[in-house]
Design brief:
By secondary structure, this protein is α+β, with helices and mostly antiparallel strands. It folds into two domains: 151 residues, no CATH class; 121 residues, no CATH class. The protein has eleven helices and nine strands. The strands form two sheets. Strands 1, 2, 3, 4 and 5 form a five-stranded antiparallel beta sheet that branches. It has a four-stranded antiparallel beta sheet with strand order 7-8-6-9. β2 and β3 form a beta hairpin. The chain is globular, with a radius of gyration of 23 Å.
């Protein structure tokens, strides 16, 4: 590697042999080859990336380009997914970069205790997502017929009635969806080791899925995945949709795994730093329909 490259860190784990094998299975961002860096009893999956594209100023522009962000997330996720198939790993956040391998090794040494505790927590678990949608259009009232409007109701009054009925339908859909989201949280929580609430997705009135009112992630034992899916899949209400995604590598529960490369601490540690905290690959992947790696 040259001084014109930074070191992009994808994931951290303990199993050196398993992570070494991943370097021969997939490539990293923009097709760059993978290798491992060790420190503090941990191993990081790393690739080189061009410094001129991953320095703070240019990185911010990339994260604001949705097409580029999706490509970056897919490449990042492919590496994490390949690693997770063979061993427990902590997925790092998108675009976690350091100046050189010495800084990566120093980060592993510095964070060996919290990383070790997280690896213990995540071992034998996967992440499943649960999204609840209010599908108001599915329960929308039928438009009034010309005959009913002709029976003594003026067009203006009939229009106001339809508008009022539509508003009532939307309110009712949200109420029913919120109630079902509470039921889903109880059912999921009975099987999960941990839960993280994400911000509901916006602008989801397309593809028949409706308005997202709950967007949760659960850390689920591998042996409970099928029961989790069965319980959540049995929850139905008129005008409400429930979607289970995953299983994923536990992005939502690797809290702190990318913090060493955020603005401030990264500069002190030798990382390139970020103008903003980028989303995880799973947050980008969650925009897609239900799916994920099978357990």
């Amino acid at each position: 590697m040259s001084d014109t490259e930074l070191r992009y860190v994808y994931a951290v784990g303990r199993d050196e042999e398993a992570l070494d094998r991943v370097t021969g299975l997939v490539t990293g961002v923009d097709g760059h080859s993978l290798h491992t860096v060790r420190g503090g009893g941990l191993t990081a999956l790393v690739s080189g990336v061009p410094a001129d594209r991953f320095e703070e100023a240019t990185l911010t522009a990339q994260l604001e380009d949705l097409d580029r962000l999706e490509r970056l997330a897919r490449a990042h996720h492919a590496v994490v997914d390949a690693a997770f198939a063979g061993t427990t790993v902590l997925p790092m956040r998108l675009a976690t970069v350091y100046r050189d391998e010495a800084r990566v090794a120093a980060m592993l040494e510095e964070r060996r205790v919290p990383f070790g505790e997280l690896l213990d927590l995540l071992d034998g678990h996967v992440e499943l997502g649960v999204k609840v949608y209010a599908v108001a259009r599915a329960a929308a009232p039928a438009p009034a017929s010309p005959e009913s409007e002709a029976a003594g109701t003026s067009p203006g009054r009939a229009y106001l009635r339809r508008r009022r009925a539509q508003r009532d339908t939307v309110r009712n859909a949200y109420r029913v969806a919120a109630d079902l989201a509470e039921v889903a949280a109880r059912e999921a929580g009975a099987l999960a080791a941990a839960r993280v609430s994400h911000r509901p997705q916006q602008g989801e009135w397309s593809e028949g899925r409706g308005e997202n009112v709950a967007n949760e992630a659960y850390l689920v034992p591998v042996g409970a995945v099928e029961e989790f899916r069965a319980r959540l899949g049995s929850l139905t209400r008129p005008g409400v949709g429930v979607e289970v995604t995953g299983p994923w590598a536990p992005y939502s529960f690797a809290t702190g795994a990318g913090e060493a490369a955020d603005a401030g601490e990264a500069a002190e540690a030798g990382g390139a730093g970020h103008a903003q905290v980028p989303p995880s690959a799973a947050e980008v992947q969650r925009q897609a329909p239900a799916g994920g790696r099978s357990a």
